[in-house]
């Protein structure tokens, strides 16, 4: 400490180093600079290059993944549109088949109803004819019985009586007003 304190350098400018210290410091700086340049900077450059490559590779992988995702989304959208089209086609076919089945069932039901109506009309006509015949016979019997009471003789069971009664009933049917007939469809 005394050597330094006695130096003329310390008296003139206390912040200016001694020339020997300056030279040693300069040499140490040069050695340090050379060592850093020789071993540290290449390591930094290597790490920097690796990080750059990793980042650029990550970006490239991200872009590739994004492109794959876009392609998958487009494929999904196309598949979805195709599936929707297929569903619409199937729905239209089902509706067409449903309509055909309903139309067929309706036609079959109408045909069965027509057959039932025809059978009913035929049965009703047969019943009406039977009732008319029965009524004619009853009217004939009552007429003969009434005539027998008026005349005082038995007129039943003779051919002449039957012919007279039949002719009388035929005349009544011919003179019957049109309203006496059953309405259409109730024969």
Automatic annotation (TrEMBL):
Assigned keywords, A-Z: ATP synthesis, Cell membrane, CF(0), Coiled coil, Hydrogen ion transport, Ion transport, Membrane, Transmembrane, Transmembrane helix, Transport
This protein's GO CC annotations: plasma membrane; proton-transporting ATP synthase complex
Topology term for the membrane: Single-pass membrane protein
InterPro entries xrefs: ATP_synth_B-like_membr_sf, ATP_synth_b/b'su_bac/chlpt, ATP_synth_F0_bsu_bac, ATP_synthase_B_chain
Pfam families associated with the record: ATP-synt_B
Cellular compartments annotated: Cell membrane
Ranges in coiled-coil conformation: 55-100
Bilayer-crossing regions: 15-36
Single annotated GO MF: proton-transporting ATP synthase activity, rotational mechanism
Function: F(1)F(0) ATP synthase produces ATP from ADP in the presence of a proton or sodium gradient. F-type ATPases consist of two structural domains, F(1) containing the extramembraneous catalytic core and F(0) containing the membrane proton channel, linked together by a central stalk and a peripheral stalk. During catalysis, ATP synthesis in the catalytic domain of F(1) is coupled via a rotary mechanism of the central stalk subunits to proton translocation.
Stated family: Belongs to the ATPase B chain family.
Description of how the protein assembles with itself and partners: F-type ATPases have 2 components, F(1) - the catalytic core - and F(0) - the membrane proton channel. F(1) has five subunits: alpha(3), beta(3), gamma(1), delta(1), epsilon(1). F(0) has three main subunits: a(1), b(2) and c(10-14). The alpha and beta chains form an alternating ring which encloses part of the gamma chain. F(1) is attached to F(0) by a central stalk formed by the gamma and epsilon chains, while a peripheral stalk is formed by the delta and b chains.
Entry-linked HAMAP family: ATP_synth_b_bprime
Name the record gives this protein: ATP synthase subunit b
The encoding gene: atpF
